[in-house]
Amino acid sequence: MSGGVDSSVAAALLVNAGYDVTGVFMVDYDDPERPGSCWHSDYEDALRVCAKLGIKLLRLDFQKEYRKLVLDYMYKEYDAGRTPNPDVLCNKYIKFGVWLEKARELGYDLVATGHYARLEREFPISNFQFPNKSKCPMSNFQLLQSKDKNKDQTYFLHQLTQEQLKYIIFPLGSYTKPEVRKLAKKFNLPTAEKEESMGICFIGEVPMKEFLQKMSDAPLTTCPECSKEALSKMVTAAGFQLKGNGYYATDFKGGPAKPKEEASAPAHACGTGGCGSCGG
User: Which of 38, 90, 223, 270 is catalytic?
Assistant: First the structure.
């Protein structure tokens, strides 16, 4: 649970459906100069939602894993002159990697998130051969677009494996964002009117150029190739945000690539359990 409206409604729907639900708030990135400053307000929102729903909330720290599996990748890609997509790896290795493993270790059967996506189960035997499929083991999990095509997040989930998908449910897959807002009001959730966050998973409301510059001054990475010099090069060669998303274009041979328009919005609410693209 990120403290946002999507994960709040996902939890409410599961509670309403009779599931035994426990909320989880992940801290994957923090500001070293002001520990807790970028995620604490979202954590408080998640606490309020859980109190309203009558469920407990766990807080898990995956900062080391996120740094190693996501941030180091991002630095390497910028250093190589490519545009990284850390959100895909965030879902693959953090939300449905170390978090899913931890959930299974703690004895939970399934992991649910506020992603706008759907899952459909397929069976190896046709209706003609075996009409009672409920007694047949599920063999394939298809990741399908959500009802809300504007909010669909399946691209950011496309690297999930069958082994991961079999433990996941997406309660919001059959709803549109306006419908989710209405449900939040119906359930009287504290986050019903909360603004949406967009951008890179867990990084923060800061432009990418500024973030890379900060890392070049005080790198937190375990990546040996990501030196201060390399990060400084990324800052000078990258950092133009394209309108409408949180991705950046670079052209190391000819200098920074110039988009038609620069976005005015920063990257995303940091340190929480979800964001506009990786979700949850």
Answer: 90
Question: Has 226 been annotated as catalytic?
Answer: no
Catalytic-role residue among 50, 201, 270, 278? 201
Cβ within 8 Å of residue 57, ≥6 positions away: 1, 22, 23, 24, 25, 46, 47, 50
Distances (CA, A) of 235 to 23, 203, 228: 37, 16, 11
Length of the chain: 280
Enter the DSSP assignment of 259.
P
Which whole-number Å values give the CA distances from 66 to 114, 137, 231, 260, in the listed order? 20, 34, 18, 32
pTM: 0.74
270 is catalytic: no
Q: What is the mean pLDDT of each run of 10 residues along the chain (280 residues)?
A: 95 97 92 68 95 97 92 86 87 96 96 96 57 56 95 95 95 97 97 78 61 58 53 46 38 42 34 50
